[in-house]
Write a structure and sequence with these properties.
By secondary structure, this protein is α/β, with parallel strands linked by helices. Helices cover 43% and strands 15% of the residues. It has a domain of 162 residues: HAD superfamily/HAD-like (Rossmann fold), CATH 3.40.50. Strand 6, helix 10 and strand 7 form a beta-alpha-beta unit. Helix 1 crosses helix 3 and helix 5 runs parallel beside helix 11. The longest helix has 14 residues. The relative contact order is 0.17. GO terms for molecular function: phosphatase activity. Keywords: Hydrolase.
């Protein structure tokens, strides 16, 4: 992955989780809660990740397996499409802003690329979606059709406890330019690996906020991407230092 359009000072790159951060609903949670083990069992596994050291990789593998046992992969894609998942109300304006400013934007997700591509294409159009870099897990199909019981998640980093270590993508950018300011937006436990490596963490969910608080990792809460844009724009314009964006769950460092 190469840096581009980083001639300005400061150099900035933006990374974001997809499900539940860019969108109003997590497609994985939708499948697991409605087609797999159910919300209660999913939350119990996530609490074990947060409090008992269960690797996120193993929790997510079990969650997706519970869906795959009941539905084929094509059925899952169709069900997710029917769920009418929507974009965060500020995302389009944010995305147009970073593109206009030449700021690299990358989606890094623990979801599966085919489902993410389908959702993004539906929400912003296939042509525009094709311009977005997506780094995610994939799907393993064990028969010709991906029938029930014959598919599962294919982890990007199978040896990592995260399954997809989101730190890798951010670290690649930072290796090319150690002075680059990296923004990461996330909401859940799948974002834990990215939380330490980014210059600035923007958190919209209780799970990621709880992790950052537990590990004393500074972060800035946000309610939508309108607020993220304000933060990025203020740092880009030199009105505030990225290190000053650390108001915790309340957010609100940028007031205008």
């Amino acid at each position: 992955m190469q840096l581009h359009s980083l001639s300005r000072s400061p150099a900035i790159a933006c990374f974001s989780d997809f499900d539940g951060t860019v969108t109003d609903e997590d497609s994985n949670d939708f499948m697991i809660d409605n087609m797999g083990m159910g919300r209660l069992a999913r939350r119990e596994l996530l609490l074990k990740v947060l409090n008992e050291g269960l690797p996120f990789r193993e929790a997510f593998r079990a969650m997706i397996a519970s869906v795959a046992a009941n539905y084929s992969f094509p059925e899952c894609c169709a069900k997710v499409k029917e769920a009418n998942i929507k974009l965060d109300p500020g995302f389009k304006a944010f995305y147009e802003f970073v593109r206009a400013k030449g700021i690299p934007f990358v989606l890094i997700s623990s979801g599966m690329t085919p489902i993410i591509r389908s959702i993004v294409g539906t929400l912003i159009g296939k042509e525009e979606a094709s311009k977005i870099t997506i780094i995610a897990n994939d799907v393993d199909i064990w028969d010709e059709s991906g029938s029930a019981g014959n598919w599962g998640v294919k982890f990007r980093h199978p040896d990592s406890p995260f399954g997809h270590d989101k730190d890798v993508a951010i670290s690649d950018f930072k290796a090319q330019d150690p002075n680059i300011i990296t923004f990461f937006c996330g909401d859940g436990l799948s974002d834990m690996s990215a939380a330490r490596s980014a210059t600035m963490r923007e958190g919209s969910g209780d799970d990621l906020a709880a992790h950052c608080e537990k590990e004393d990792i500074p972060f800035e809460g946000f309610r939508n991407f309108h607020e993220v844009r304000k933060s990025v724009e203020a740092v880009l314009d030199g009105r505030i230092q990225a290190s000053d964006l650390c108001a915790g769950r309340a957010g609100g460092t940028i007031v205008s």
